[in-house]
C-alpha cells in the first residue's frame, strides 16, 4: 500500500501548535487571524498518503482517529481498520471536524455525544483519566465541567461497577463525585440508566446549585453573526492569558490560583478576548474562544454590569465569529445555564439555538 520512505515529513504534516494571533481588532478590516491546530493523538484526521510506484493512483486518503504518531509512523484507526503509515510517505495531514450524524446545517448535524467530547477538549481538566469511553475529570473544584465524569459512551464496566470506580477515583482526588449527563432538550433524567442509578444512590439533579440543574448547549453559524463595523468598539484578542484578563474574569467567578490558569490555557488553542473602557482603560468585557477543527467555542462571556445593553457582548461575539470565519470554523458552540435568562436571551438574539442540554448529578453537601 505504501511506498518506500523517500523524504522527511513536510511542514504540513507537523503543524505549528501556537496560534499566531496576538493583536487588537475592530472596525471592518480583517486582522488576518490565521490559527493552526495541532494534530494530536485522539483527533479525527485525514491523512494524504503516497502509494507505492506502480499503484493505480499516486496517493490515497485515510480518515479516522489518530491513535499514535512518532518520527517514523502515524497510526490511524479508520472505520474499517487500523493503518500504520510510514511518516515519510505522509504527504499532508490535517484535523477534521467530527462527522455529520444527522441532517442540518454545520452547527446542527453533529451528534450530542461528539459535541460533548469536542467541548471537553475546549475546557480541559487538570487531572483526567479514562474509564472506557467515560472521562473522569478533576481541577480542584474549578467549574463543574472540569470536575465531573463526562459520561459519554460505554464505561467498559457494568454500570454499578463503573460508578463505584468513579466514586473511588474522586475520593482519591479528594473531590466529591459529580456526573455530567446529557440528552435532548427537555430530557427526563430518570429515563436514562446512569442518572436513574445515581438517584438511587442519593445523588440529586443539580447537586447544590440551581445553575447545574439544566445547562443548555447552544450552537450557531459563524457566518450568521453580524460582522464588526466601523462603529464597533475595539476588541483585543490575545493568544496569551494576561493578568488583566484574569482579573476581569475573576469578577464573574471565583478562581483557584494556578488551576484556573491551567484550565483556561489547557486546550489545543484558545484566544482571550476583551474590551476596555475607553476612559478608565479597565477591561469591562471578556470571553475565551476555544479553537477546534471546524468549530469555535465561547467560554466565560461576561460584561461588567455598568456596561451592559451597550452591545459589548455582541461585539465580542462578532470578533469571535470573524476569527472563526477566517479559519474555516463554520460552527460555534457555548454552554449557558438554563436559569440564566439574560444569557439565553442574548444568544437567542444572535440566532443561536439549543443543540441539546445536560445536567450534573451530585450528592448534596453534608
Ligand atoms: C449576557 C451578557 C453577556 C450580555 O451582554 P451585553 O453586552 O449586555 O449584551 P448586548 O448589549 O450585546 O446585547 C445584545 C442583545 O442581546 C439581548 N440581551 C442582552 N441582554 C439581555 C437581557 N438581560 N435580557 C433580554 N435580552 C438581552 C438583547 O436583544 C440585546 O439587544 P438590545 O440591547 O438592543 O435589546 C451580560 O448580561 C452578562 O455579562 N451577563 C452575565 C454573564 C453571562 O450570563 N454570560 C453569558 C453566559 S454564556
From TrEMBL:
Pfam families: Rv0428c_C, SH3_Rv0428c
Classification via InterPro entries: Acyl_CoA_acyltransferase, GNAT_dom, Rv0428c-like_C, SH3_Rv0428c
Residues covered by region (Disordered): 1-35
Annotated ranges, domain N-acetyltransferase: 223-366
Bias-annotated ranges (Low complexity): 11-25
PANTHER family: L-2,4-DIAMINOBUTYRIC ACID ACETYLTRANSFERASE (PTHR43072:SF60), N-ACETYLTRANSFERASE (PTHR43072)
Protein name: N-acetyltransferase domain-containing protein
Amino acid at each position: 500500500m505504501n511506498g518506500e520512505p523517500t523524504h522527511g515529513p513536510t511542514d504540513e504534516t507537523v503543524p505549528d501548535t501556537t496560534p499566531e494571533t496576538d493583536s487588537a481588532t475592530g472596525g471592518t478590516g480583517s486582522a488576518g487571524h490565521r490559527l493552526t491546530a495541532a494534530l494530536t493523538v485522539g483527533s479525527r484526521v485525514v491523512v494524504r498518503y503516497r502509494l507505492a510506484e506502480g499503484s493505480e493512483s499516486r496517493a490515497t486518503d485515510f480518515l479516522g482517529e489518530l491513535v499514535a504518531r512518532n518520527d517514523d509512523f502515524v497510526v490511524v484507526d479508520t472505520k474499517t481498520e487500523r493503518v500504520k503509515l510510514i511518516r515519510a510517505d505522509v504527504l499532508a495531514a490535517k484535523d477534521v471536524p467530527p462527522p455529520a450524524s444527522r441532517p442540518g446545517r454545520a452547527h446542527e448535524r453533529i451528534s450530542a455525544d461528539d459535541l460533548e467530547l469536542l467541548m471537553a477538549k475546549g475546557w480541559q481538566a487538570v487531572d483526567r483519566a479514562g474509564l472506557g469511553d467515560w472521562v473522569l475529570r478533576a481541577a480542584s473544584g474549578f467549574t463543574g465541567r472540569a470536575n465531573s465524569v463526562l459520561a459519554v459512551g460505554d464505561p467498559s464496566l457494568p454500570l454499578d461497577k463503573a460508578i463505584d470506580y468513579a466514586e473511588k477515583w474522586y475520593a482519591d482526588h479528594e473531590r466529591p463525585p459529580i456526573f455530567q449527563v446529557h440528552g435532548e432538550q427537555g430530557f427526563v433524567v430518570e429515563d436514562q440508566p446512569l442518572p436513574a442509578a445515581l438517584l438511587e444512590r442519593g445523588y440529586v439533579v443539580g447537586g447544590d446549585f440551581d445553575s447545574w440543574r439544566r445547562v443548555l448547549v447552544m450552537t450557531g453559524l459563524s457566518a450568521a453573526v453580524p460582522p464588526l463595523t466601523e462603529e464597533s468598539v475595539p476588541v483585543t484578542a490575545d493568544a496569551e492569558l494576561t493578568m488583566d484578563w484574569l482579573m476581569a474574569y475573576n469578577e464573574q467567578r471565583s478562581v483557584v490560583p494556578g488551576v484556573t490558569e491551567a484550565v483556561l490555557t489547557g486546550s489545543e488553542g484558545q484566544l482571550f478576548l476583551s474590551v476596555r473602557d475607553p476612559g478608565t482603560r479597565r477591561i469591562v468585557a471578556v470571553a475565551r474562544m476555544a479553537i477546534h477543527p471546524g468549530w469555535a467555542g465561547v467560554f466565560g462571556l461576561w460584561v461588567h454590569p455598568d456596561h451592559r445593553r451597550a452591545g459589548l457582548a455582541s461585539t465580542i461575539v462578532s470578533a469571535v465569529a470573524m476569527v472563526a470565519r477566517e479559519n474555516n470554523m463554520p460552527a460555534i458552540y457555548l454552554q449557558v445555564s438554563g436559569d440564566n435568562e439574560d444569557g439565553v436571551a442574548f444568544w437567542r438574539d444572535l440566532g443561536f439555538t439549543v443543540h441539546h442540554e445536560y445536567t450534573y448529578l451530585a450528592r448534596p453537601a453534608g
